[in-house]
Amino acid sequence: MNHHQKFRLTVPVSPVDHVLGPEHAPVTIVEYGDFECPNCKQAAPAVKLLFERYVGKVRLVYRHFPLEEVHPHAMHAAQAAECAGAQGKFWAMHDLLFDNQSHLKLPQLRSYAERLQLDMARYAAEMNDEIYLQRVREHIRGGDEGGVRSTPTFYINDAIQDVSFGLHQLEEGVAAALRKQS
Questions:
Q1: How does DSSP assign 47-112, residue by residue?
Q2: Which domain, by its residues, includes 163?
Q3: What is the pLDDT of residues 37-88, one digit of tens each?
Q4: Against a cut of 0.85, is the pTM above it?
Q5: CATH number of residue 16's parent domain
Q6: Considering the domain boundaries, does residue 12 fall inside one?
């Protein structure tokens, strides 16, 4: 038995999560990601395609798992995404961060916030005070407890989904979960 089989999502999806798709979708995909991680960037379009293919049947949840020792800008990027989320623009910032993955320094993060027309006084204050640091750390802790070791890590309906052989495994997992429901 590989280590993936016994790990389950330890923190249930809740209203504070960043969610795309209907609440009552039969399949929930939770991703633990890092905005500076090349594999996460690669996965993003595949996840979006999957979401569009199964429209109404899948909801997506994104949680932060910045690997700070490998990716020096990932923690700030996660906080910038949270600032955007507080102003209703989480997913737009999520996409901008992955699209500009090699440009995640603080002044660049600020320019993305400007591009999204965030309230910049609020953005600056929240980034300065690191008011979302605690939330990001909670995501990391929940991921650790649920067996997240690398990014991206995906769960399908609370069970960890191995994608080490490629993202087609994510689609297979979703298809299997939908068959189980019907």
A1: HHHHHHHTTTTEEEEEEE---TTT-TTHHHHHHHHHHHHHTT-HHHHHHHHHHTTT--SHHHHHHH
A2: 3-168
A3: 999 999 999 999 999 999 999 999 999 999 999 999 999 999 999 999 999 9
A4: yes
A5: 3.40.30.10
A6: yes
